[in-house]
């Protein structure tokens, strides 16, 4: 049987005029269903490229990518849009909320375009924002805005939650609380969560740790000594 996520010999070359940049030279890894996976590596290693390809936001130059047995690398433009819409939830470093919509409206907006969305209010309560639904992003702290972004992604009820440096804009303790929310979501909902980070200390909280270096997967291992994020110091 194949893994839930399968990334096989993926290459990605960006061409800018005469210049070719090999963002991914040869990346191979897999992720099991319901796992909390941390992808770690230095800036420029190719982490975002991996996540964007996995999320259908970018195409690959060669190789193969599968989610739940489906070959993503062979999808056409329309199918890729549907894949992004129905199967993937994204959480970005800078939240990307719509500023003139309330927290609840931001979550509803994303849920509207889905087949089988979860209730916006219910998801906002789950991320600890039951009392802040009517607030606009500017009235919320960074950590609260990231919680809205997580609720927005979860309300789509995606197969895969992809988070690119989700704590990059947050202070230490707020960042920890957001990571705890992601870890709890994985445990309680059985959600498969992928978190990208340049902070190798965070690897300790993962079920699976993938290290990326210079466009290649340097190592992949299952973590047998999982640490609660509250107990990780960096
Ligand atoms: N759209 C693009 N055009 C050209 N080069 C890119 C593009 N996106 C990323 N790159 C390059 O690919 C490499 C990997 O980038 P990225 O995946 O963003 O790394 P990371 O997220 O690990 O910091 C870097 O050298 C980066 O400059
Ligand atoms: Mg990046």
From TrEMBL:
<dbReference type="InterPro" id="IPR003439">
    <property type="entry name" value="ABC_transporter-like_ATP-bd"/>
</dbReference>
<dbReference type="GO" id="GO:0098796">
    <property type="term" value="C:membrane protein complex"/>
</dbReference>
<dbReference type="GO" id="GO:0022857">
    <property type="term" value="F:transmembrane transporter activity"/>
</dbReference>
<comment type="similarity">
    <text>Belongs to the ABC transporter superfamily.</text>
</comment>
<protein>
    <submittedName>
        <fullName>ABC transporter, ATP-binding protein</fullName>
    </submittedName>
</protein>
<dbReference type="InterPro" id="IPR017871">
    <property type="entry name" value="ABC_transporter-like_CS"/>
</dbReference>
<dbReference type="GO" id="GO:0005524">
    <property type="term" value="F:ATP binding"/>
</dbReference>
<dbReference type="Pfam" id="PF00005">
    <property type="entry name" value="ABC_tran"/>
</dbReference>
<keyword id="KW-0547">Nucleotide-binding</keyword>
<dbReference type="InterPro" id="IPR017911">
    <property type="entry name" value="MacB-like_ATP-bd"/>
</dbReference>
<dbReference type="InterPro" id="IPR003593">
    <property type="entry name" value="AAA+_ATPase"/>
</dbReference>
<keyword id="KW-0067">ATP-binding</keyword>
<dbReference type="InterPro" id="IPR027417">
    <property type="entry name" value="P-loop_NTPase"/>
</dbReference>
<keyword id="KW-0813">Transport</keyword>
<feature type="domain" description="ABC transporter">
    <location>
        <begin position="5"/>
        <end position="232"/>
    </location>
</feature>
<dbReference type="GO" id="GO:0016887">
    <property type="term" value="F:ATP hydrolysis activity"/>
</dbReference>
